[in-house]
Amino acid sequence: MKVERFFPDNIKAALKYDPPGSWMPELPAECIRLSSGYPDPELVPTEQIKAAVASLINEEQDLPLHYLGSPKMMTLRRQLLNRMAERGMEVKEEELLVTSGACQAIDLIARILLEENTVVVVESPTYMEALEIFRNYTNEIISIPVDEHGLRTDVLEEVLAARKQKGLTLPRLLYTIPTFQNPTGTTMSVERREQLISLSEKYDFLILEDDAYGELAFDKSPLPLKGIDTAGRVLYVGSLSKVVAPGMRVGWVAGDEQLVSACAWFKKDLEHPFAEATMASYLESIHLDKRALELKEVYQTKCDTLIRSLEQFFPDSVTWYMPEGGYFVWVDIPGVDTSELLKPALAAGVSFIPGKYFFLHQNEGRQFLRLSFSYAAKTEIVKGIQILGQLITNMAKDAKQTID
Q: Which one of 72, 84, 169, 241 counts the least CB within 10 Å of its CB?
């Protein structure tokens, strides 16, 4: 039986792309994981979460384990609203929906807004899983470049003006990670943030702000787009995966009440009552500002270690952006196809993510790679960069000899 004939056309179109997660390399044992955008294992609060579970069960017995869950699910909503307010975003209770991680929030937004011919704008490069989600709903995706100051809003304005002049469909949604972007680690300047909000009003589109890394500032985190949005254009997506633990799968979307209500309509009861109640119990036991400071101190030190190692071991032709927070460093290696570099790197015991996976048009990313400083230990970071530096030097020599 040919099962494909049962799929509607939009599903057939989505299944033509690489399957989700195909970008993730298969790692050998004892590999130095500069590919992993995961928290430092030492920073995952296992004992405190264990205590939160015990406290929750002792207090509520079986209640958190039922379909309807615990009253602490509402406590979590209030905690998230309070944290947003502390970061300069005033949101009402009916304007926030807790989700199963940031990806569910992105998918729900895509589901309520996108059709086959809906135009979506993404950054270039961008978070590959968001790109995978958008491709499930539309083929009309436009990419706008990112530089050291974030999304090139000047290029965006040119593209929007040209499309309007030609009578082409204007975008309905723009997806951005303005703060400590994945994969580049860059942060959108205040001027560009203001220009982006202005463009959204002028050309009538919504902004999906992915702020997964916003709490991980080495100095001061900029005001999110949601904090300067006065017209209800921004759908803000937050996550506790980087602040607490990714396996808890706690994210949220905040925005216009009608849009959030539509997301809730399609979310139905696809949530995790026990995880949400546990998270609320955990957050009651800590001070988030203190937690954020702890994360900052560790990740800034590890980032510094990575940057010093790049300066020491990589050829002078290689460049990178200097992150002000988050997990990642984006590296440009002229003349090297980083997909070809990955195989000898894995054989030598170090992993990274080739840049092509972060681009709408993969050929644009062949000379780039993403390095993560969050997961590996500092000694592993130094060793891993030394190995990569030698491999890059060898590849450059081989390429030169071939040309000669």
A: 169
